[in-house]
Write a structure and sequence with these properties.
425 residues, alpha/beta, Rossmann fold, Spore Coat Polysaccharide Biosynthesis Protein SpsA, Chain A, 2 domains, nine-stranded mixed beta sheet, five-stranded mixed beta sheet, 12 helices
């Protein structure tokens, strides 16, 4: 975890936000004390922790600063003053002295009364000027809950700062809240956003939609402090391959219309856009493809040489992608669901390896490649696409049971099967 956040000796880290600040601070402290001396402090108020069999603290008071002798394998806690069981805000001049004695300093820089969202006072967060990093905690468990004092700290102030007419807390509320950058105040050094309590595919789906709309998206992390699971978020480009000749189909299969008058390609794109991808690319070869790309807000890339095979489309799509992963989706997968696409992306977040869906022991599509395979992908030739890379490189299997949604259309005979599946669209 400390390696993931790239924490090094000499770092002074402020922690802001809501939904796990204190937990993360002590979690980091326990990991860092193995590598050097660690100090915890606050520029707001925190409860003074109790010493138990499972933890060991050394409390430091202002009058002891001049005689300090920090010990390895202990968490030191600076108590500027303790009132009603709470440690009060440390003075910056005291922190200036303390920083000379410790390898790592962790500072809780604002309060949230154990609620997921908050209205921010002008003096919050109170970030120590010599900090090297600020980690902002985001807790999305308030999503779809009512906007009230129970779920939002300083509710009236929150309404003034982020007012809209929604009675419940929705994704757009979180996006506006995070993009305001209030977590960081005027802090200009390394900024990190950590989404806590992302513990399953359902919460990851909500997180993905929010993370994809965050303006400053380079340093986003997610996971669960409780479960000791931490990942760096990797944005993914959806690349739809639609420039094939459908030789076995004897016609343009992507323009085949279902009973609802939607084409195969249109239905595939509809399902993809249920996910808020930051970047979507469609590689096609004619106006039918470009018109649909415009309708569904995909960047259209014309494959002027489709006779060179699928690899040419992969090369073109990869060359235009700018994110950390490339999800290649055939245009003839109209039954692919949002849940299955997100499952593939979720596995990619965990492993940062090639992710291949398997159905009944057989490889399928779509396949997700990390950006580390950029050179391999743009060097492909022929009609095999990324299959050549899979023959020589390791990949992670992502198993599925429902073969229906991975059904693609290759021949006219497949249309008979298609007719039995249309009701599921």
């Amino acid at each position: 975890m400390t390696e993931l956040f790239n924490i090094k000796k000499g770092d002074i880290i402020s922690i802001t936000g809501a939904g796990g600040k204190t937990s993360l601070m002590f979690h980091l402290a326990n990991a860092l004390k193995k590598n050097g001396t660690v100090l915890i402090a606050t520029t707001t108020k925190i409860f003074k922790p109790e010493i138990t069999e499972n933890n060991s603290f050394i409390f430091i008071y202002p009058e002891e600063i001049s005689t300090l002798s920090p010990q390895d394998n202990f968490i030191h806690i600076f108590c500027s003053e303790v009132i009603n069981g709470k440690i009060t805000s440390a003075k910056f001049e005291d922190l200036n002295i303390l920083r000379k004695y410790f390898d790592y300093i962790l500072i809780e820089a604002d309060g949230s009364a154990n609620k997921a969202l908050k209205g921010w006072r002008d003096d919050e967060p109170n970030i120590y000027p010599n900090c090297t990093k600020t980690i902002a905690i985001v807790d999305i468990t308030a999503l779809h809950k009512e906007k009230n004092d129970t779920n939002i700290h300083r509710f009236e102030l929150f309404q003034k700062q982020y007012f809209n007419f929604n009675k419940t807390i929705e994704k757009n509320d979180y996006i506006r809240y995070i993009n305001s950058n209030i977590f960081f105040n005027e802090f200009s050094k390394e900024r990190i956003i950590f989404f806590n309590k992302i513990e399953n595919l359902e919460t990851f789906a909500d997180f993905f939609d929010i993370a994809s709309k965050i303006t400053d998206h380079k340093n986003i992390y997610f996971g669960s402090i409780f479960n000791n699971v931490f990942y760096k978020f990797k944005s993914v480009t959806a690349i739809v391959l639609a420039a094939g000749f459908s030789k076995r189909f004897s016609g343009d299969k992507l323009s085949y219309k279902f009973k609802n008058n939607k084409t195969i390609l249109e239905t595939t794109l509809t399902n993809i856009t249920k996910i808020d991808f930051r970047e979507k690319i469609l590689v096609g070869k004619n106006s039918f493809h470009s018109d649909l790309a415009r309708k569904f807000e995909f960047k259209f890339i014309e494959n002027k040489n489709p006779e060179l095979g699928q690899s040419n489309s992969v090369v073109l799509g990869t060359s235009e992608a700018t994110l950390a992963g490339y999800l290649f989706i055939p245009g003839d997968m109209p039954f692919l669901t949002k849940k299955s696409i997100l499952k593939i992306i979720f596995e990619f977040q965990k492993w940062n390896e090639i992710i291949v869906p398997f159905i009944n022991g057989n490889k399928s599509s779509p396949v997700l490649f990390p950006e580390s395979y950029f050179k391999d992908l743009i060097s492909l030739k022929g009609d095999s696409g990324g299959r050549e890379i899979l023959k020589r490189e390791k990949f992670i299997k992502c198993n599925f049971k429902n073969s229906t949604e991975f059904f693609d259309i290759d021949t006219q005979n497949d249309l008979k099967i298609l007719e039995t599946l249309e009701e599921q669209i």
